[in-house]
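Quick note —
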Amino acid sequence: GQRDIQLEGLEEEVVEHRLSSEEQVCSCCGDNLHEMSTEERRELKIVPAKAKVLKHIKYVYSCRKCDKENTTTPVKTAPIPNPVISGSLASPSSVAYIMTQKYLEAQPLYRQEQNLSRLGIKLSRQTMANWMIKLQMIGLLLCTKDCMNC
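Predicted structure written out below.
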């Protein structure tokens, strides 16, 4: 019914509760019990936001043969995505989260700072404000805010 519609499309995690083999013994005759049926109960589990450090490792390659035989050694570097804001910890997901909280949920940066701190994330409101200013300067913030208001 209505409850199924509310949970439709959500990832499902199954937790099975079984008796241990020692507990699967009949209290009357002592014979082994068999699984007769199951009963289900569904709950809504909300996992709060969590943060991870995404460490980019860029590999650099060179030719050992050319290094030994030639005066120049060709060097190749693996491509890596450009950062959202150069020299910062900002990632596309962290910026999107902060912007969504600020512009869609109307949550000021000081409250975001408090909420993130409770999750073990030390990110000051000044840093978040600087990210918003830098995104504004490169034109990403206006575009995103316009799209969010649709």
